[in-house]
Amino acid sequence: GLRVLEALAASGLRSIRFAKEVPGLQAVVANDFSARAVELMNRNVAFNGVGDLVAPGMADARYPLLFTAPQQPTPKPTGEEPFDVIDLDPYGSPAPFLDAAVQAVSEGGLLCVTCTDMGVMAGNSAETCYSKYGAVSLKGKFCHEMALRIILHSLDSRANCYQRFIVPLLSISADFYIRVFVRVFTGQAKVKASASKQALVYHCVGCGTHHLQRLGKVMSHGTGFKYGAATGPPVGPTCEFCQQRHQLGGPMWAEPLHDPAFVERVLAALQSSPGRFQTEERMQGMLSVVTEELGDVPLYYTLDSLSSTIHCNTPSLLQFRSALLHAGYRVSLSHACKNAVKTDAPPAVLWDIMRCWAKIHPVKRERLAETSPASRILSVEPTLQASFTLRDDANPSSRKRGLKRFPENPEAFWGPKARAKAG
Ligand SMILES: C[S@@+](CC[C@H](N)C(=O)[O-])C[C@H]1O[C@@H](n2cnc3c(N)ncnc32)[C@H](O)[C@@H]1O
Ligand SMILES: [Zn+2]
Q1: How confident is the model at residue 70 (pLDDT cuts 50, 70, 90)?
Q2: For the packed helices 95-104 and 143-161, what is the interaxial angle rounded to 10 degrees?
Q3: Domains in the chain, start-ordered, CATH in brackets?
């Protein structure tokens, strides 16, 4: 059976749920460095009758000793095998616990990591983000997905120190937090590919256009691979569309956020036991959008920001998606943002589509400053003739099926509570 460590367990609620709801576990260690928490956990574990599976432990989760040293009094209940699953659910940032976790998890084991410091990760304090995650966050429309890519970058680069690397299974942005599920493997050769999996982001402060710059390059070489420096930059000194400057963010994980086969299995499991979870509808909606996301296209634009940049009214999602499909590109939603446009169309195509839209929905140009991004973008003739004729395939299946894809307005008692008082 699997061995699970909940390194920051507080009341032990989650560990108790693991014990009661996940069949075939060998042991669950519910750890917290607070004596009061451990006392509560002991009570909760006894109360729930899971004492045979859940062992409360008291150690500092920042140090790998917790995970490995046999001489530690707690929390090793059985044997000395490593943990197959390590769950990190901190107040705020998991950064201090990542090093220990990437070292300690078993080969191919699973890390489940929550971050609730979304201000930091979504661009409000880029410098703090760098100190915690080794990446500069940006305040772009794509900030929620970028937050996911920042924690994945951090996990991979810390794993790399120990010749390990991550493989994401599922990366979720929900409400006020993000949570990623990644497997960790060991392999000196595979770690060499990690630089090429990360990218810097150039983000135009005027029109919001973004470009990625990978940190490394992989080339196939005989039966193996050769690694080298990436070439760049992907942008000039100013934005080609609006002539303003770029902000530089990242590095962030630029590979897929999810393993589609895994997500399909989770969806199938959900469908095979209806009524099992209160949040079933929301999970089904969110995971369905996840399966539709273009895995090979990091980040996204939003319809509102594309329209507000050029001061025009907003095309409907179906119109805009149809235009992209007519032009021969792929497009998807993102679970991380309600009106996201994730597409492999280059920014020049997006702006051409917006220019065509503005031709049929004219913008009052006289009110625009000549140097504004709107004027600069609209002063160029589109080279593409966009068609907004609706296409059936422009409507994503999750939307057609009427799934509950995005959270409703908050209910009473919604959101994180204040950190518990010491005592
Ligand atoms: C957000 S709570 C965990 C909630 C829990 N996962 C749940 O689902 O109910 C974070 C916990 O981490 C504990 N903690 C903070 N720093 C720690 C450290 N260095 N080592 C161990 N536990 C720590 C705190 O005492 C607190 O109980
Ligand atoms: Zn620009």
Answers
A1: very low
A2: 50
A3: 300-400 (3.30.56.70)
